[in-house]
Specification:
Largest sheet: none
Number of strands: 0
Low-confidence stretches: none
Radius of gyration: 21 Å
Strand content: under 5%
Shape: globular
Number of helices: 16
Length: 439
């Protein structure tokens, strides 16, 4: 049984995160839906290819969120509030620098992205139009990663909820206005995202100010530049970056291989991937609660607290994984119809729907263990686990696609999730043993 107090702790953190995270794939669903009702599958494909390029250059740098959460939570658990402040400052400055670099390098990045994705002649111009607009939001995107990571690390997930709901709510509203109202097409989707990201960054800094006012400690520039802490942050971030690049490589291959199977398969896979993202962001709510609670326990050197945090968050994650599987099996067809009225895309998506329906049961441990490892700042082990899973994924692609086509592509994706779970599960006992003495 779980201590009722730990149920409350998990939900105090996970509840706002879940609500905030669900708004992210909801945005993806709206993005796909507004272009899915334009005449032809190429519009869905254009947004899908444009989005996957940003998955590489943005989500691969999500270490600014993950690393900031783990480092902040450990500093707070140790009672070092000067370091809590300094961690945010380092992450924000790093995010601004990376964002400016990507804006400056947008031409070669676009060329590389389109080369890897390999969209058709009808899809490529739409993907380029989307990219050319959204790339200017890179600095704001990376700042928002740092802000969200810090909010989770200090256990203020309500601030995360306000920030994410504001950003994604504005994005959804502008999607409808620009695409459905002003007939701006793919460009409207990109402009909506760009405006929402900068608006959210402004709101985020206001929320930071409110959180810092009652907090102990001060911001010291010397501590922000502390070489030991800088090396620690860069080590954690470098390994999370490599881990994320491996994961995004898997998604890029998934989209590019699907694109080579035709625009209809590409569009169907894009719709089903939105279902997978809906699952992942929801389960990440409990994983991110684990990040904060595990990091706090490690900072306090409290093994009992560590075990309780892992147990409570994991049981709730399993319960919701089962719920999602039931929903996708029972109502997946209706959800597909909501996403597009193109009959050929609807038919193809239904063929591969069972893969998405079993995905929650196969992959939830990979999300949960990610949260535990991030809270423990075990980035090197995460990197090694993801590299191993990617290797098995590549083998699956080579062997299964010639045999089963798009079914082989989805089977390989499931292998990726399973291997991640096994390899991180193997290393978990060592993390627990190294937490401070039992209390």
């Amino acid at each position: 049984m779980i201590d009722e107090n730990w149920n409350r702790k998990v939900w105090h953190l996970a509840g706002p995160i879940v609500l905030a995270n669900v708004s992210i794939p909801l945005l993806g669903l709206v993005d796909t839906a507004v272009v899915g009702h334009l005449p032809g599958p190429q519009y869905i494909g254009g947004v899908a290819v444009g989005t996957i390029i940003f998955s590489i250059i943005f989500f691969s740098f999500n270490f600014l969120r993950m690393g900031t959460t783990g480092l902040t939570a450990q500093a707070q658990g140790a009672g070092d509030f000067d370091e809590v402040r300094a961690t945010l400052a380092r992450a924000v400055f790093l995010g601004i620098g990376i964002g400016i670099a990507f804006v400056a390098l947008q031409v070669p990045i676009l060329w590389l992205g389109l080369t890897i994705a390999g969209p058709s002649e009808t899809v490529a111009p739409l993907a380029q139009s989307y990219f050319d607009i959204r790339i200017w939001g890179a600095p704001a995107t990376f700042i928002n990663y740092a802000l969200v990571g810090w909010f989770i690390g200090i256990h203020n997930t309500r601030a995360t909820l306000i920030h994410q709901i504001f950003m994604n709510g504005i994005n959804i509203i502008l999607d409808l206005v620009f695409v459905m109202g002003l007939d701006m097409g793919v460009e409207g989707v990109a402009y909506a995202t760009l405006i929402a990201e900068y608006g959210a960054a402004v709101l985020g800094f206001w929320l930071v100010r409110r959180n810092l006012a009652p907090m102990a400690g001060r911001l010291h520039l010397e501590q922000v530049r502390n070489p030991i802490q800088m090396r620690r942050m860069m080590s954690v971030n470098r390994n999370i970056l490599l881990r994320s690049l491996c994961l995004q490589t898997a998604f890029v291959l998934f989209t590019s291989i699907g694109a080579r199977m035709g625009d209809t398969v590409l569009a169907a896979n894009a719709i089903l991937l939105n279902f997978q993202l809906l699952l992942s962001f929801f389960l990440d709510g409990f994983a991110q609660a684990a990040e904060a609670l595990v990091g706090d326990a490690i900072g306090a050197r409290d093994r009992a607290r560590f075990r309780a945090a892992v147990k409570a968050s994991s049981i709730w994650a399993l319960a919701f994984a089962l719920l999602y599987s039931v929903i996708y099996f029972a109502f997946g067809g209706q959800l597909i119809d909501l996403m597009t009225n193109v009959e050929t895309v609807q038919e193809v998506a239904r063929i591969y729907l069972p893969w998405v329906a079993v995905s929650p049961l196969l992959s939830f441990w990979s999300f949960q263990l990610d949260g535990i490892y991030i809270g423990a700042t075990r980035a090197r082990e995460m990197r090694n686990s993801m590299a191993t899973a990617l290797l098995f994924y590549l083998i699956g692609l080579l062997v299964l696609i010639p045999l089963w086509g798009n079914h082989g592509l989805w089977a390989s994706f499931m292998i990726l999730m399973i291997v991640r779970s096994i390899t991180m599960g193997w290393g978990y006992p060592k993390i627990e043993r190294e937490v401070g003495a039992e209390t």
